[in-house]
Amino acid sequence: MDWEKKIDYSLVICTFNPDKRILQRCLEAVWQLDTTGISTEVILVDNNSDLPLHQQSYIKIFEEKIPGMHILLVPEQGVNYARMAAIEKAAGNYIVYFDYDNEPESDYLQELKKLNEQFPAVAAWGPGKVTVDFIDGVDNAIRHFASMAFQQREEQTVRTARENSWQSCYPFGTGLCTTASLLKEFVQLARQGRFTASGRKGNKLSSGEDTQMVLHCISKGYAAGVSPALKLTHIIPQNRANSQYLQRLLYGTFICYETCLLQVFPEQKKTLEQKIMPRWKFSRKSLKKFIRARWSKDPHKMFDLVEFIATNAGTYAALNKPVPLPVNQIVRILKVE
Q1: What's this model's pTM, rounded to 2 decimal places?
Q2: CA distance 182 to 188
Q3: Which of 324, 138, 124, 131 minimizes the C-alpha distance to 238?
Q4: Taking 50 as the threshold, does the pLDDT of residue 1 lie above it?
Q5: CB neighbour class for 83 (10 Å; exposed up to 12, middle 13-18, buried from 19)
Q6: Are strands 40-46 and 69-73 parallel, antiparallel or unpaired?
Q7: CA distances from 156 to 95, 106, 127, 166, 281 (A)
Q8: Do residues 63 and 55 touch, judged by C-beta distance below 8 A?
Q9: Is 171 within 8 Å of 226 (Cβ atoms)?
Q10: 128-150 pLDDT tens trace
Q11: What was the pLDDT predicted at 193?
């Protein structure tokens, strides 16, 4: 590849032991992207898969089909390490993250180009239309909740904000497009230990690095937002479309937020200190919710419990305070860490 050539968009796809059905759909969609007037590269990150991607025949086919596609091997396990390596390698003015279970619409890059030209003060964009495809089905009792957990969105208008706390219009990691120079600065700070969100690694489902990337853009004076013109499908297999996985996903998402926020905006510490729940109250409410959830046949009671514990335990963690013992015991019983 000619690294001297100007690149508009670097498309990054991180994988670890990917489901062939899903990665094939993702790569097929990337191949179908309309790149008229747009220069691109595609960095397919192999985060140390048991069967290396470059040895798989269907990957070789896509390497030949997709212009500018190359495989980047990152041996250090964890999606954050994979992403940081890709950011450092990326040559584009913008970096677009497609998780390997994302299927973008063919006009995704064209719509991004329009948005970046029309809104130069917005440094992070995400899709306003996300459809969740449960390819192996899902229990109707949890379908709506699961769809929301997997980032289904139905925005009707462009929405942006520039607040130093998470806003409903801020983009998630799915289909996230960010100004490359800001991400490269983010990686430098992460390498120096300023940002510590590790991302998903093995069975741990923490996903704070997405949050910190967006908040870092905000800290630099830019806005972030979503647009209904950006559309993609989020492909979810059976091993993630179940209550136990959703509980772990909830825990991993909420446990890290306050730490992510505080590392980007240290001035938020006083606010956190004022909102932290007293230990006795945290323990009592957790036990009450736990008993109700255990006796209930409604899976949403358990989801509510996990979100409550993770949100408040996340505040304790951000302030380096020990979580009450009864709460830790509940977390161990639930097996959500």
Answers
A1: 0.93
A2: 10
A3: 138
A4: no
A5: buried
A6: parallel
A7: 25, 20, 11, 20, 40
A8: no
A9: yes
A10: 999 999 999 999 999 999 999 99
A11: 86
